[in-house]
Design a protein that fits this description.
The chain has 485 residues and is an alpha/beta fold. The protein is 43% helix and 17% strand. It is built from 18 helices and 15 strands. Strands 1, 2, 3, 4, 7 and 8 form a 6-stranded mixed sheet that branches. It has a 4-stranded antiparallel sheet with strand order 9-12-13-14, with no helix packed on it. Strands 10-11-15 form a 3-stranded mixed sheet, with no helix packed on it. Helix 2 crosses helix 3 and helix 16 crosses helix 17.
Length: 485
């Protein structure tokens, strides 16, 4: 500041630029700079931005933390876990401390943004829609199961339609869209989605969609976009409708036997919920929905076949594996063993085709969940038998049981047989057929009956194994302690 003052004073005294530069020992450019400066107000100190070895990985860290927002609070990335993934998956040479600082800064910035967020009252025109998934419990052929349900709402009229599916795969999403489009007789001009797995997800600053969903959008002609992370207010209509559908249509817990028939009735029941005045416009929602219909796109000449084709090699028994880690086995024919087959995955079915002729070989109901399944397993009959035990004598379940178990269950009355079949059904849903059969056998040998508690204990024993000792164990010391002679 002393040099600046000297330059300004000498200039006021009439010295030339060259003289000032000579007297102060600075360049002429510096003299010109401070001679012409008109504001010497102090400036706030600013930290100079410095490069970091972590900068190339910051977008990836942001995407991991974005995905965390869809998980429970106890199942999110810690800074240590972020560091471990960067090292193992990306080969990053960074310290734990620098990753901790980066994660802390990102979370602090997001907390501040959330605290200062101002939510806009968004305007939705006729023909525009929002879509999301929820979860609810259902009795599927007598067995209580958590299923996903898809909801599409039209914010202009507040009309919403729901469909129930066993999962949230791209096949389920596209089939739900097709069902809704065909029921209302048109296609929304634009649909706003959450980062649903079956549709697509944000990766850094972009959006990656599944191939089937991209085909669905092109086939029906609708535009789509995704909500910003942590911005459920951008699709508040469907967020509210998911809860409304669950409370009004799925209480008490519904019985679901034929999923197709249930979904067709559900579309009508969903529309019937809108036979009421709009919460702010006052007009009947179904009347406003006519404006939505008029603004929609027309249906194409042919419906989309909502299928994903994959190639799988049949094992030595002619079975193909599909699903996470190949947990679900679908039987074909022994003659097709070791052959490469084409498998068509739809929302509720799995079809196997001959890759040479394209002919359909077989079709099975599609299995979901983490429990292993096999269409040739007797477990596939348990749900039906537990509901109606009339086919017990000729069932694969009865044939697969050991003689003593078969004789025991044959001796039961109808109510007792159905009770034990329900226990087997529930255990097979989590453990698979082989583990269930072993657990039932152990329970019967130990207690002479098949009940839920005994089978659960036996399943745990079968999973962990029995304890063995290298030398015989002398329990006499406990007899002495208890005073037993």
């Amino acid at each position: 500041m002393t040099d600046k003052n000297s330059i300004r004073l000498l200039w006021r005294q009439g010295d030339s630029v060259a003289e000032i530069a000579r007297k102060t020992g600075v360049s002429r450019d510096t003299v010109y700079k401070y001679r012409d400066m008109d504001d010497f107000s102090p400036e706030p100190p600013a930290r100079r931005a410095q490069g970091s070895k972590l900068d190339p990985y910051r977008p990836l860290i942001e995407s991991w933390l974005d995905d965390d927002m869809r998980s429970g609070r106890k199942q999110r990335h810690t800074a240590k876990r972020v560091h471990d993934r960067l090292v193992s998956e990306c080969g990053a040479d960074v310290s734990v401390s620098i990753v901790e600082r980066c994660v802390r800064e990102i979370r602090a910035r997001r907390s501040a943004e959330a605290a200062d967020a101002q939510y806009l009252d968004l305007v939705w025109g006729p023909g525009e829609a929002q879509a999301d998934f929820g979860e609810a419990d259902f009795y599927v052929r007598g067995m209580r199961t958590t299923l996903s349900f898809f909801v599409m709402t039209f914010p202009y009229s507040n009309v919403g339609l729901a469909q129930v599916f066993p999962g949230e795969t791209s096949e389920c999403v596209c089939q739900a869209l097709r069902n809704v489009f065909e029921h209302v007789g048109g296609v929304p001009t634009k649909i706003v989605f959450d980062n649903a797995t079956g549709v697509g997800r944000r990766v850094g600053g972009g959006v990656r969609t599944t191939e089937l969903f991209a085909a669905c959008s092109a086939h029906y002609g609708f535009r789509f976009r995704f909500c910003n992370p942590r911005s459920g207010n951008e699709k508040g209509s469907v967020e509210n409708k998911v809860g409304c559908v669950r409370r009004n249509l799925f209480v008490p817990v519904p019985q679901l036997w034929d999923a197709g028939a249930f979904n067709r009735r559900l579309l009508e029941r969903s529309l019937a919920m809108s036979d009421k005045p709009h919460w702010i416009k006052g007009e009947r929602e179904l009347d406003l929905f006519e404006a939505d219909r008029l603004a929609m796109l027309g249906l194409p000449a042919k419906p989309l076949d909502c299928v994903t084709y994959v190639s799988r090699t049949a094992d030595k028994k002619g079975k193909v594996s599909v699903g996470e880690r190949g947990r679900h086995l679908y039987s074909t024919h022994p003659s097709l063993s070791r052959r490469r087959l084409t498998v068509g995955l739809r929302a509720t079915t799995v079809s196997v085709y001959d890759p040479d002729s394209g002919e359909l070989v077989c079709e099975h109901p599609r299995a979901y969940g983490s429990a292993p399944t096999d269409t040739s397993d007797p477990a596939s009959q348990l749900a039906l038998l537990a509901w109606n035990a009339g086919g017990w004598e000729n069932s694969r379940v009865r044939e697969a049981l050991p003689d003593e178990l078969r004789e025991h269950m044959d001796s039961l009355d109808r109510a007792g047989l159905k009770a034990e079949l329900r226990v087997m059904r529930d255990q097979a849903a989590t453990s698979g057929w082989e583990a269930t059969l072993q657990a039932v056998r152990l329970a019967y040998e130990a207690t002479g009956r098949i009940d839920e508690a005994s089978v659960a204990v036996s399943a745990a024993r079968a999973a962990t194994g029995t304890v063995t000792y290298d030398e015989p164990v002398d329990l006499g010391v406990y007899d002495g302690f208890m005073g037993v002679a």
